[in-house]
Here is the input.
Amino acid sequence: MKVLSIRQPWVELILQGRKTLEIRGWKTEHRGEIFIHSAFNLDRAALKRYPLEERQRSALVGTVRIDDVEELTEAKWYDLAKYHLSTWPWDPERCHYGFWLSIPQRLESARPCMGRSFLFRPEFTSR
Here is the structure.
């Protein structure tokens, strides 16, 4: 199964079912279930708005379904804010596509894994 690496707190918001639109600068033809990877780096600005307890990083922490991918415009960016939860202004260089997500499931235990860009196949690490 493929993996998408996402920084906290966005991972936790997806697993809680609160964030259902993941913003990316690239699109994918993939539809269906993927692993969610909690990246090593944090989105510190977003953590000020969405504080959370320390969570596992550099690990697979859950699964989610990609149902669709939508090309975004500036108007759509603002109209869909309640789904992507981002507060930064529209940026045409990094906000091209929204991945519609559903059926988030938290794994019983996180699995250490190195992250990568785009969708990738997992490479597990031991700690």
User: Anything to note?
Assistant: The chain is about 15% helix and 40% strand. The CA atoms of residues 9 and 48 lie 10 Å apart.
